[in-house]
Amino acid sequence: MPTPHQRAQHLAWLSTITSLPTAAGHEQRVAEFITDWCAERSDLDLTRDSAGNLHVAFKPSSTPFREGRPIYFTAHMDHPAFVVERVISPTTLQLSFRGGVMDDYFKNATVLAHDSTNATFTGTLTGMVEAAGPFKHYTCELAASNNTLRVGDVVTWNVGSAEIIDNKMHTLACDDLAALAAALSAYDVLRDARAQGKQIHDTRLLFTRAEEIGFIGAIAAVKLATMPMDARVIALENSRSFAESPIHGGPIVRVGDRVSVFSPTLTDAIAKRAEEIAGGASTVTASQKLKDLPPWKWQRKLMAGGACEASVFYNAGYEATCVCLPLGNYHNMADLDNVQAGTNTRPATIAREFIGVDDYHGLVDLLIACAEKLPEGTSKVTAMVEKLWNERSFVLTT
Predict the structure, then answer these.
(1) pLDDT per position as a tens digit, 210-221
(2) For the chain, which domains are there?
C-alpha cells in the first residue's frame, strides 16, 4: 500500500488535475501536465499517436516484467465544457458545448473563460443560438471587456476551486480527471517498486481525447492500433452514483455499462485482486451481516447510467473492462435525480462534481495490485462450479 507521504502526493495531484480547464478536442492543459510529469521521470517513455492520444510505458531496465500480456490503464483527458467558436465583441462570445448536460442547467449559468495565458474572465450565458454542427451553441456576456480570448479557447462552468469536505473531493472535473490522477498515482508507486527490483506486469497508460462527444479518441486508438491486440485493457471512469453504488462504498469493478457488458474473465481477475486486498467479497450474502464486510471497501456493479470506453475497446476485440469511481453531481449537475423527475423545488444549478477521498485511494490501491499480479484464465464461476460439485455432489446419490 502507498505510504502516508505518497497518499498526500496523490491527493495533491487529484486536486490539481481535476481543476484543469479541458474540453473535447482542447485537452492541451491536461496533456501538458502529463508531459511534464513524465519528463521528470527518466524511466518513462511518453509518445503520442496521430490522434493526439498519449501513451506512457516503462523504458527497458534490468528488472524484467512478470510473464504475461501487457496491462493498460486508460482514462480520457476531456470533460464537458464550452469552446469559443466566435468572438462577437470584446464582451460577447459564441460558445459551443461539448458534452452531455440537460438544457435546464444552462439558463443564466455563470462560466469562466480561459485564455492562452491562463487568465480567466467571468461570463454569463444569455441564450441558445442556431449554428451548424453537432454541438449546441450559446451566447456569453463577459463581466468585463477583454482582447485576449480567441476562437478555440476553453470555457468552463464557474464552480469555484477544489476542496475536501467531509472526506469528499469537490472539484470542477472528476470525470475523468480523477481517474487519470489515480492512474498516474498508481504508476508512480509502481515505478518505485520496479526500481527496487520488484517484478510487475508490463503496465502501460493510455490517455485519450474527446470521450465526452462519443469516444472519438478511443475509436482513433483502435483504428491506429495504438495498443497491441493482446493487451488487457482496464478503462478507468467516474460513473454516476446511485443508491446501490454509493460514494464511500469503494472503487467499482464495473461489469458493464448502458450499451454492453465487458470481458468476464478480466472483470473476474480484477474482482479477485480486490477480494485479496479486502480479505473478503464486496457484498454480504443472505447468511451474513453488514458488519462482516471488510474495512477496505469495493463494489462490483453494472453501471448502466452511461457508456464508457471499455465498450469501444471490447467491441474492437480487446479483452477490456472498467473500474470506476462513484460520482456525485454527474457532469456538474446538482440535484440531478429531482431535475430529471421534475420534482426539483429550485432551479437546476451547476455545481462541483465530487468523489470520496477513500474511494480514490482505494482505486489507486486496486490498480497497484492489478499491476503486481493479475491472474489469467477461466471465469471465477468455473472454479466455483467445480468446487461446489466436488464438495457437494454426494447429495444427489444419498
Answers:
(1) 999 999 999 999
(2) 4-79+163-383 (3.40.630.10), 81-157 (2.40.30.40)
